[in-house]
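ingest -> validate -> predict -> emit
validate: passed (alphabet ok, no gaps, 435 aa)
predict: started
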Amino acid sequence: MTDLPRRQQRARGPAPVRHGRLPRRRLVASLLKLLAGVVAVVVVSSFSVAAYAVWDVARSVKHGVTLVTLPGHTPIPQDIPNVGAIPGGVNLLLAGTDTRSGLGGVYNSAAEQDASTGEGNNDVTMLLHIAQDHKSMMVVSFPRDLMVRIPTCPTPDGKDTVSGSSYAQFNTTLSRGGLACVVLTVEKLTGVTIPFGAVINFDGVSAMSTAVGGVTVCLASKVKDDYTNPPLNLPAGESTLVGDQALSFLRSRHGVGDGSDLGRISNQQVFLSALARKIVSGGVLANPVQLYALAKAAVQNVTPSETLTNPTTLVEIALALKDTGLQNMVFLQYPAVSDPQNVNRVIPDEEASTALNNALVNDQPVTLTGSTGRAAEDPSATATPTPTTTQPPAAPATPTGTGTPAPTNSSGAVDLPSNITGQTAAQQTCTKGNN
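emit:
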């Protein structure tokens, strides 16, 4: 996809679609906040510093956003026990805003403020789905250029509504109606009910990458991008990313894959899988100092839904991931194809998205059969993957949220269509530079 020049977005009414070159400081808010911040809050409770940490983190939590429910969707009760993982499954949406409002410093310049102020756009949106049995997890990334149906949404102050659209760019939902509108749109798109959500700014990415001592990523070829700040110039091989350099890596679009937003998503997944491996296997879970620093950095840069303002809720959600296993943590991109009305936009791939939606609604674990995406490669994979021929073809997917569970493979998971890209946290993939 290509971008066109950005214009200031206002919180009231549909925002104009903006295209053009990626600004130098563009938010990439990702599962870093969830896997680092949320998990950190949880595990720190098992150490002697827990009482103080949870109290101090609670002081940093911002005022909660009220989420609303689509007609026909039943709110999921979330009873928080004193100790242990949250009962049942979890659907949590993370919306990364590109707003510069209130960030200060370099973001006070006229150019930065003109790029985005107010609510901003949700240029990064991820849905975390934890299975009812806590044995599997999916993180679904939604392309910012996805053209979707947006339902009628409440205004951010809850006093009025914003009319819906039958065809609008996905990343305008935050500026239309705040977090609640992003959640409603994803609920409409996928068929799942989402009781938890958070809006994240990009100030905390640097702090959290530093708190874990850096994240080591693999580069299949050099990554050079002069459009990030600081600019990137990373050689092929392994690089440990800390602070602003990690933020630039996550923001980079011109320097990875084919220079598109879809390529940037797969680059983010390389980073996130490396982060997950470090948290689970690299000793972070056994270091209360790092965990506390992560928790504080996360909540200081998150505006949560009202359902997330109690830090105990974060503890219960994170504990649900404690024994999931890296091989069962799947990062994937919501399937899309080029929009016939605009080559610079994409629309949902009907067959593939229905298969994914049904797996989400029916709480089924999934297996990826496709590639790792435009900006990532798996060095351990065979040059030409052998198609799966032992399983019978899956029945045609039915409309969102109404299908029966899909046929499963020998491991009990649903084989997703091969045009759904992504990877597991266990895969040690490498970023492909766009040079």
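The longest helix spans residues 261-281.
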